[in-house]
C-alpha cells in the first residue's frame, strides 16, 4: 500500500516552473517527508515544457529530473503527469493549439504526434531514475472533451480510446515497464454522453486511477458526515472494478481531499479518517495520494476559494490538523493493518452497453445505483459493483470473491 500526496509548491504554485528554485522544492519535500508519506505526484506545465510544437525545453526537463532526484533523497518516489492540461480550475494549453492555431487536441495528427513526442521525452529523461514510478498521461484531460468545458474538443468514444492508447504507448516507449496510467475526473463515470468512459479507465494503462471529490453533489445530498460522503472514494474504487477485465486490477486513488465548505474545516480530520477507513477496506487498492501537499498562497489571485485550504500543510509549511490526522492514519495502517477481505455482496449495475455505458448517470450522486450502493454501505455490507452483463458469469464472480448479487430495488 502506498501513501502519498499531490505536490503543490509553496513558492509560486505550479508557476514555479517559470522561476524554478531547487532550495524551495527541497524545503517543501522535507515537510512532506516529515508526514511519513512515501510518494508524490508532480505536474509539469505543458506550455512551459513544450512552448512550440517542435520544441521541448531541455532546461525544463532537467529541472523536473532534479526534482525527482531531490524527492528520492528524501525517501519519496515520484509519479509525473504529462499534459497539464487542467489544474485547480485553470487550463494550461500551449499557444500552438489555441486561438489562431485552434485544433482538436485529441484528433489533429500534428498535435497528437507532438503530444506523444513530449510524453516520450519526459518518460525517457526519467527512465531508470531511482524513485521514478511512471507517467500519468495528464491531469483530468477528459474535461477538454465535452461539457461543461466552455470550448471543448468534441470526440467520439472510439477517438478517445485511440488517443489514450497512443499516449500510453508514448509513455511506454520512453520508460518501458513503468507504472503508466491516465486519469479522468468523475464525469467519465457519471455522464453517459461523455467520450471518456469507465471502460477506458478500468482497462487502459497499468492501473485504474480515480479522483474523489465530494463537492460533486454528494456532500450536499448526504452531509459531510453521511456514509455516502465518507465512503465516496471507496465507492469510486469499487465502481471502477465493475468494468475491469482483470478481477484484481490495482486501483489508485490518485486524488482525494476535504474541500470546504462541502467538508467544514472543523470536520476535515474526521472526514480524512473516515475516508481512509472506507477506502483501505477495498481489495486491490494500489495506494492513496491526497490532494494536496500545501495550501495555495493567497497572494495568488482568482482561484476558487476551496483551493486555498486543501493542503495538508499551510503555505508556510506548518502541518494542519488534517495533515496530522492523515499521518496518524498512515502510521496506524503500517503498524499492522490486515489485508481487506473480498467483498462478497455486489450491487447489480445496468449502465447499458459495456463499452460506451450510455446509462452511467445512474452512478452519479442522486442516481439509482449510487444511492442504492450508499444504502448498502450504511448497513455495513461492504458492497462491490458488478455489470449486468457479468452478473451471471460464475467464473467472474468467483474470481472477485462475490457470492451474492443484489439489484437496486432490493437494496432498501
Explain this structure:
The structure is a single chain. This protein is of the alpha/beta class and 412 residues long. It folds into 2 domains: 2-334, TIM Barrel; 345-406, no CATH class. It contains 14 helices and 13 strands. It has helices at 22-33, 46-49, 58-73, 109-126, 157-174, 187-190, 198-203, 218-222, 227-230, 232-241, 268-279, 321-334, 368-378, 394-400; strands at residues 2-6, 39-42, 77-83, 86-87, 90-91, 132-139, 181-183, 208-212, 251-256, 285-290, 345-349, 384-387, 404-406. The strands form 3 sheets. Strands 7-6-3-2-1-10-9-8 form an 8-stranded parallel sheet. Strands 12-11-13 form a 3-stranded parallel sheet. Helix 4 packs parallel to helix 5 (157-174) and helix 10 (232-241) runs parallel beside helix 11 (268-279). The longest helix has 18 residues, at 109-126. It is globular, with a radius of gyration of 20 Å.
Q: How confident is the prediction overall: mean pLDDT?
A: 97
User: What are the low-pLDDT stretches, counting only 5+ consecutive residues below 50?
Assistant: none
Largest sheet composition: 8 strands, parallel
In terms of DSSP E residues, the strand content is 5-15%
CATH class of the largest domain: Alpha Beta
User: What's the CATH H-level superfamily name of the largest domain?
Assistant: Glycosidases
Counting DSSP H or I runs of 4 or more residues, the number of helices is: 14
CATH topology of the largest domain: TIM Barrel
Shape: globular
Order of helices and strands: EHEHHEEEHEHEHHEHHHEHEHEHEHE
- List the strand order in the largest sheet: 7-6-3-2-1-10-9-8
Radius of gyration from the CA trace? 20 Å
What would you say the CATH architecture of the largest domain is? Alpha-Beta Barrel
Amino acid at each position: 500500500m502506498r501513501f502519498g500526496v499531490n505536490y503543490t509548491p509553496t513558492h509560486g504554485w505550479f508557476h514555479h516552473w517559470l522561476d524554478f528554485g531547487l532550495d524551495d522544492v527541497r524545503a517543501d519535500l522535507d515537510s512532506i517527508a516529515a508526514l511519513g508519506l512515501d510518494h508524490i505526484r508532480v505536474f509539469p506545465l505543458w506550455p512551459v515544457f513544450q512552448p512550440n510544437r517542435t520544441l521541448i525545453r531541455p532546461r525544463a526537463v532537467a529541472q523536473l529530473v532534479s526534482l525527482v532526484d531531490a524527492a528520492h533523497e528524501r525517501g519519496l518516489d515520484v509519479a509525473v503527469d504529462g499534459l497539464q492540461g487542467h489544474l485547480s480550475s485553470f487550463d494550461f494549453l500551449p499557444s500552438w493549439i489555441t486561438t489562431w492555431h485552434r485544433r482538436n487536441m485529441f484528433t489533429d495528427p500534428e498535435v497528437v504526434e507532438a503530444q506523444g513526442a513530449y510524453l516520450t521525452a519526459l518518460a525517457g529523461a526519467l527512465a531508470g531514475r531511482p524513485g521514478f514510478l511512471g507517467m500519468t498521461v495528464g491531469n483530468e484531460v477528459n474535461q477538454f472533451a465535452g461539457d461543461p468545458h466552455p470550448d471543448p474538443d468534441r470526440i467520439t468514444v472510439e477517438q478517445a480510446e485511440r488517443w489514450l492508447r497512443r499516449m500510453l504507448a508514448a509513455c511506454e516507449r520512453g520508460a518501458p515497464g513503468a507504472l503508466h496510467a491516465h486519469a479522468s475526473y468523475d464525469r467519465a463515470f457519471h455522464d453517459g454522453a461523455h467520450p471518456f468512459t469507465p471502460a477506458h479507465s478500468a482497462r487502459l494503462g497499468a492501473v485504474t486511477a480515480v479522483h474523489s471529490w465530494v463537492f460533486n453533489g454528494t456532500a450536499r445530498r448526504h452531509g459531510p458526515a453521511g456514509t455516502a460522503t465518507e465512503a465516496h472514494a471507496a465507492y469510486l474504487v469499487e465502481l471502477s472494478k465493475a468494468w475491469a477485465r482483470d478481477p484484481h486490477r490495482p486501483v489508485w486513488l490518485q486524488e482525494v481531499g476535504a474541500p470546504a465548505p462541502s467538508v467544514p474545516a472543523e470536520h476535515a480530520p474526521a472526514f480524512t479518517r473516515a475516508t481512509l477507513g472506507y477506502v483501505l477496506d477495498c481489495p486491490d487498492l494500489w495506494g492513496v495520494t491526497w490532494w494536496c501537499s500545501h495550501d495555495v498562497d493567497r497572494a495568488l489571485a482568482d482561484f476558487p476559494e476551496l483551493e486555498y485550504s486543501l493542503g495538508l500543510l499551510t503555505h508556510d509549511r506548518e502541518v494542519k490538523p488534517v495533515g496530522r490526522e492523515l499521518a496518524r492514519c498512515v502510521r496506524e495502517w503500517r503498524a499492522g493493518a490486515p489485508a481487506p477481505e473480498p467483498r462478497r455482496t455486489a450491487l447489480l449495475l445496468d449502465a447499458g452497453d459495456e463499452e460506451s455505458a450510455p446509462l452511467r448517470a445512474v452512478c452519479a450522486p442522486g442516481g439509482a445505483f449510487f444511492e442504492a450502493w450508499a444504502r448498502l454501505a450504511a448497513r455495513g455490507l461492504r458492497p462491490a459493483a458488478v455489470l449486468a452483463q457479468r452478473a451471471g458469469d460464475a467464473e467472474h464472480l468467483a474470481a472477485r470473491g462475490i457470492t451474492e448479487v443484489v439489484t437496486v430495488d432490493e437494496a432498501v
